[in-house]
Amino acid sequence: MGVGRRMKKQGPPAPLDESKITMLKKRKSGSAEAPPKAASAKRRRSDADEPVTKKDAPKKKKVNAAANVAPTKPVKADKKKQSTKPKPVPVPMSDDDEDMEDLDDEEFGDLDGVSEGSMDSDDRVEGLSDLEDDDDNSVIDSDDEGHTREAMFSDDEDMSDAEERLTAANIEGLSRKLDLEQQAEEEEAEAELQEAALQTNIAGPDVFADQSQQGLAPDLQLLRQRITDTIRIMGDLKTLGQAGKSRADYIDLLLNDICTYYGYTRFLAEKLFNLFTPMEAFAFFEANETPRPVVIRTNTLRTNRRSLAQALINRGVVLEPVGKWSKVGLQVFESPVPLGATPEYLAGHYILQAASSFLPVMALAPQPNERVLDMASAPGGKTTYMSALMRNTGCVIANDASKPRAKGLIGNIHRLGCKNTVVTHMDARTAFPKALGGFDRVLLDAPCTGTGVISKDPGVKTSKNERDFLAIPHMQRQLLLAAIDSVDHASKTGGYIVYSTCSVTVEENEAVVQYVLRKRPNVKIVDTGLGDFGSPGFLSYMGKKFDAKMALTRRYFPHRENVDGFYVCKLKKTAVTPVSKTDDSASSAPAKSGSKSARSAASAASTDDDEVYDKTPIVDENGDAADFEGGAFASFEDPEDTERIARAERNRIRRKGLNPKGVLNKPKKSNSEAAPKTSESVPPTKEEENKTAASKKSTNEGKGEKKTVVKGKEDKKPVTKSKEEKKTEAKEKGEKKDKKAKKASK
Ligand SMILES: C[S@@+](CC[C@H](N)C(=O)[O-])C[C@H]1O[C@@H](n2cnc3c(N)ncnc32)[C@H](O)[C@@H]1O
């Protein structure tokens, strides 16, 4: 269950450092004891030759982990016996060369198995792997002379004593940690076995018996027992079920118990429960009660993973590479120092980032020199990763609709040294592609309900209601349409869109993708390149069938991969599609979104511009086509911003040689009138509300001024002034001519 998995490595790939740990222990001890584990490299090789079933793989991983603490045990020794050997037994350094070779293969040979580089079917195989390799190498080569970074990660044979001591300290810490984890796991497994044994002796307990004690809080232990009993009965309802009780009765009881035990609303519990079998749903709810492992991402713009690991080990941090699937992640087990305040952190050598949020960027695989859009980017974990993968070349537009969040984004961009990034603050639904388009790649890490990150934000359990599950997917669809329309299908290197959420519900994932497939037949789902890590997207759900390629999208769950719940879908834009092919009638937008206006807007667009699909206007929540001309997306809240913009505008007009007063006083349609509602996308903070109130005030004042200009006597002012302008211009021109003539005569 979730608890037992807590500190497991993330994802299926085997830990990278186990042979290395053993090897380093051997080095440290220099002992001459029997070396069964010294041949671990050989064993791995022979294992690789032998066919290994999928089920065996995790076992092997556990055994390897155990081997760190009990190296004298045979590799496939009984799990329980290993755990009774808490202290590491030193092993001599035989076969070092082979160990080292293996270490290298395991740790950095990411080209086999699931890796960033080998993931993408077409463009990423070379691109990303090369990139990553280069990242590592380039930084190492440029600034590692004389450094002691190899201690944990290197195949360097000439480690100094000091280095070895440092490494040993980390390894010891790690071993201790693994020992404790394993012990806890064993105890839990034992308890579960006993529980199961007990349960099998009790045929079909009466779970419907009233357990409540009046006036008292529910007994959580009894409740939990009833949950497990109900799940067991549901597994074999015919034999264990009570007479007169249907499956629906059991589900109802179970959901009520889940709500009481874990604190979910019935609405959300049911929604999440329906994604799994009862047994797996229980595992999911359990996993949401425990935090995911702490992970940091190495910023390869400033350092490399080895150097960073060594620097943090020197500070007493116990860590190891996050898994074979990433070359930049480090999982932190223990840290005596706050990870958000180390000198390395402040110098931008790493960012605290959940492992699952590496995945959308890996799927997007931005290439150097490309133009990339991160539509909803704050606080910038993914933006800065993109920037690093692009090696600070090309351009990343990092947009976010929330101003306070955009500030955090800017902070991260500066700290991590991203120089190819431009921050914008707009409502991406309407800003793109109108303001900027033609990108090689677009990432839409969409705002979502957060049902994948309940362990981080338990508030989700009670705060998300039915309305959220209509409004948020609706916004996600609008954003994804805008993302698609912002990509250049003819891009030589890209033409890709990645859609991701940190939510596990179908409404926010497969259903959104299905919707855009209907609306934009010029995109298709392609392989994310993330290998077997995670599970395929759903092909059907509650009677709805999805595109067959939906299986190429990936889902990640806390109880399966020990990462935050996540969804990743990669789309390839193949063409600019004529508007005439739109099938708006298939719209699954909420009733209010009024596909009628969308249709008329779409047909209007088709007459405007030789049927370029990408210009299909996007409708707002009310079904109204957004008024791009009004510059609606760019609503600036601060009065000083408004003033600054006005000043800039006056200067611009002056540079043209015109009189700003005359030009600006011409009656004009108010921008704010055309502004689409954005409140749903980003709920305003108090600070924002105050600012909005202030800006509303100033806008109203502005409106008032305009009215006087239009209706009042000043009406004529602009006309008079523009005449004056013309006179001034003519005068200036005359003067210039005179000057020229004088010069010529001289
Ligand atoms: C899941 S978070 C993005 C996390 C970010 N990609 C990262 O890795 O750090 C979603 C973001 O979408 C932003 N957002 C919400 N509505 C938006 C909209 N209409 N346009 C642009 N951004 C929006 C929110 O402010 C929020 O920062």
From TrEMBL:
CDD domains: AdoMet_MTases
Protein name: Nucleolar protein 2
Domain SAM-dependent MTase RsmB/NOP-type: 284-574
GO-annotated biological processes: maturation of LSU-rRNA; rRNA base methylation
Compositional bias of kind Low complexity: 64-74, 585-606
Transmembrane intervals: none
Localisation: Nucleus, Nucleolus
Family the UniProt entry places it in: Belongs to the class I-like SAM-binding methyltransferase superfamily. RsmB/NOP family.
Keywords: Coiled coil, Methyltransferase, Nucleus, Ribosome biogenesis, RNA-binding, S-adenosyl-L-methionine, Transferase
UniProt entry tagged with the keyword S-adenosyl-L-methionine: yes
Binding positions for S-adenosyl-L-methionine per the UniProt entry: 376-382, 400, 427, 445
Coiled coil start-end: 174-201
Compositionally biased residues, Basic and acidic residues: 46-56, 642-651, 698-738
GO function terms (MF aspect): RNA binding; rRNA (cytosine-C5-)-methyltransferase activity
Recorded GO CC terms: nucleolus
InterPro entries hit by this protein: MeTrfase_RsmB-F_NOP2_cat, MeTrfase_RsmB-F_NOP2_dom, Nop2p, RCMT, RCMT_NOP2, RsmB/NOL1/NOP2-like_CS, SAM-dependent_MTases_sf
Catalytic residues (positions): 502
Chain residue ranges for the region called Disordered: 1-162, 579-746
Start-end of Acidic residues biased regions: 94-110, 129-144
Organism (species): Penicillium arizonense
